[in-house]
Amino acid sequence: MDAAGGELQARGGGGGVVTTSHVEEPLFRIFPSREASELSSLSRTGLGKPSRLARKSGLLIPAAGPTCRRDEKSQDVKNIKSLAAQSAVGLVWFEAGWKMALNMQRFLLTLLLLGAHVFVSIYAQETGVSEAWTSRSCKCDCEGGESPTEFSSIASGSSMVRGVDCMPECPYHKPLGFEAGSVNPDQITCSNQDQYTGWFSSWLPSRARLNTQGFGCAWLSKFQDSSQWLQIDLREVMVVSGILTQGRCDADEWITKYSVQYRTDENLNWIYYKDQTGNNRVFYGNSDRSSSVQNLLRPPIVARYIRILPLGWHTRIALRLELLLCMNKCI
């Protein structure tokens, strides 16, 4: 076959040269309508595999390249959409985490402020406990020369203490007389007193006197729970400005904390002494058997009846006591 005409020369049997013409067939043959339709359908599928008809005709249908490119573009679009969806989800989670962190920061700040408030309150109470008992605790003085413990009756028959409203705290303090003995035994009572028999008859509430020594040197509660109380009847309305407590003299038994109630008449309800936040004030008591601990009342209590309610104790509820009266001049 030469390059130009594609002719094929061969020698025949007679020695002559026989020239035959050869024409290259096209890539796709033209088939009758039925075969062409079937092959066209096969081509559109893009499978590129020889069918029975194609093998019969000796023709292979090439794979559809453009279809593959369209599949690749479609896959790229899906990948981009997937990345966008993941980014959106990540953004949502980031925003949620940021809001959660902000709320947590606000919560911790509120908790810190609350803790600081509690700490300041406890410190103020402990400062009041450790304050030294002096004859004069401040320089304020009420108008007039009368003692606040002096009172006059008004038309309604109730008692009114003069000079109390003008005192942020008492300028002078005077012991009521537990230690001195001027407080009578029948002025001091306790819960379940009718059950104080036998050994407990030596530890009656009348023994709750500051610095008492010897056997029976304190009030011992027969029951150890927060429903116990010690009550003092002042016989008249007075201004009470402080409380001093001690434990039992001959054993490690004392009150560690307590609250205070008061009322001006036995027919009235008991009132809890409150702190500046409006809660029942907790007074801190003793840590050993012999030391006396003072708690000043600011403002003082105007009442006839005072109750001490133990809230905590060491081993047993044991108490020795003195009350301080508020005076506006030293006598």
UniProtKB/TrEMBL annotation:
Question: One GO CC term of this entry?
Answer: extracellular region
Keyword Disulfide bond set for record: yes
Q: Where in the cell is it found?
A: Endomembrane system; Secreted
Q: Which residue spans adopt a coiled-coil conformation according to this UniProt entry?
A: none
Q: What's a single GO BP term from this record? A: cell adhesion
The principal localisation class reads membrane
Gene3D superfamilies the record matches? Galactose-binding domain-like (2.60.120.260)
Q: Which UniProt keywords apply?
A: Cell adhesion, Disulfide bond, Membrane, Secreted
* SMART domains noted in UniProt: FA58C
InterPro entries with a match to the protein in the record: FA58C, Galactose-bd-like_sf, Neuropilin_MCO_CoagFactor
CDD domains the record matches: FA58C
Q: Name one Pfam family in it.
A: F5_F8_type_C
UniProt keyword Membrane, yes or no: yes
User: Any idea which GO molecular function terms this record carries?
Assistant: signaling receptor activity
What positions does the domain F5/8 type C occupy? Answer: 170-326
Annotated membrane topology is:
Peripheral membrane protein
- Tell me what this protein is called: Retinoschisin 1
